[in-house]
Amino acid sequence: MTKTSDLIVSTSVARHVRLLTLNRKSKRNALSNDMIADLGATLRDAAIDKDVRCVVLCGSDAFFSAGADIKEMRERGFEAIDNSARRSAWRDVANFPKPLIAAVEGICFGGGHELALLADIVIAGEGAVFGQPEINIGILPGDGATQRLTRVAGKSLAMLMILSGQSITARIAMQAGLVAEVVESGRAQIRALEIADLIAQKPPRSAELAKAAVLAAFQTTLDAGLEFERQAIRFAFSTADQQEGMSAFFEKRPPNYRGN
C-alpha cells in the first residue's frame, strides 16, 4: 500500500514495516513548514496503526535533506522556524513511540541532520555527509542540534560542527555515535529495511518500551532511568507476547507476536 502526500510518500514495504520518503527533490528535500507538518501527521497515523511496528525514513540517493527551507526563512524570518504548527510537528517526530530508522545518503545538513538525530538508528551510505551549516547564514541550529548533537557526539565535535559549519563524513559520524552502520553508497535504504524487518518480528510493546527506556538515558538521571527500566520490564512481563516468547523458546518454535 502506498499513500502519497505532496511531500511525504508512505509505503508499506514489508509486513509491519512502513517506508516514508521525503519527496521534495527539486528543493533537495528542504524541510519547509508544510513538509514537517506532513511528516508529523504521517507519523501520528503510523503511531496508532497496529499494523506498523517499525518505520524507515529516507530521502534520495543524492540527499537526505539539505536542511530547513532558507526561502521561507528569508520571507518570514524567525517565525518561519518557530511557530506553533512547526513545533507541534517536530514534537510528533520526537515523540513517535515506535522504532524509527533513518537511511541517509548524500547530504544531511541543518534541519535534515536534526531530523536524523531524532531517529533511533541511522544507517548511512559511504558518501553521506552530515553538517550544521546554519552559522554560514548568520544563525544557529534551531530544531534541536545544540542539545541533541551535544548529547550524542559530545561537546567538542558539536562545537566544531556548529561553530565552523564544517561537515563530517559518514565514517566520522559513526565513530562519534551519530550513525550505527556505514554501508556502500546506495545501500542505506536496503540495509535500513533489513533492520526494520528484523525489529518488526520482535514483540512490538517490548520494542516500544525498550526505545522509551533508552531515550530516558538522555532525558533524566541515572537513578530515574534505572527505575523507568524496572517499570518497563515489569510491564513487559504482564503481556501476552512475553508469555508467547517464553513458550516459543522452550518449545523451539518461532514466536507469533500479536502486540498484546
Describe this structure in words.
The protein is of the alpha/beta class. It has two domains: about 10-200, 2-enoyl-CoA Hydratase, Chain A, domain 1 (Alpha-Beta Complex), CATH 3.90.226; about 205-250, Lyase 2-enoyl-coa Hydratase, Chain  A, domain 2, CATH 1.10.12. About 45% of the residues lie in helices and about 15% in strands. The protein is built from eleven helices and eleven strands. Helix 5 (about 145-155) packs across helix 6 (about 155-165). The longest helix is centred in the first third of the chain and has 16 residues, at about 35-50. The two termini are about 25 Å apart. About 40% of the residues are buried. InterPro entries: ClpP/crotonase-like_dom_sf, Enoyl-CoA_hyd/isom_CS, Enoyl-CoA_hydra/iso, Enoyl-CoA_hydra_C.
Question: Domains counted in the coordinates: how many?
Answer: 2
Largest sheet: 7 strands, mixed
Widest beta sheet: strand line-up: 1-2-3-4-6-8-11
Mean pLDDT level: 95
**How far do the termini sit from each other?**
25 Å
Could you estimate the helical fraction of the residues in percent? Answer: 40-55%
User: How big is the Rg?
Assistant: 19 Å
- The helix/strand order is EEEHEEHHEEHEEHHEHEHHHH
Can you say what the CATH homologous superfamily of the largest domain is? 2-enoyl-CoA Hydratase, Chain A, domain 1
Shape: globular
- Please name the CATH architecture of the largest domain: Alpha-Beta Complex
Number of helices: 11
Instruction: Label the structural class.
Output: alpha/beta
Number of strands: 11
Strand content: 15-25%
Stretches with pLDDT under 50, minimum 5 residues: none
- CATH class category label of the largest domain: Alpha Beta
CATH fold annotation of the largest domain? 2-enoyl-CoA Hydratase, Chain A, domain 1
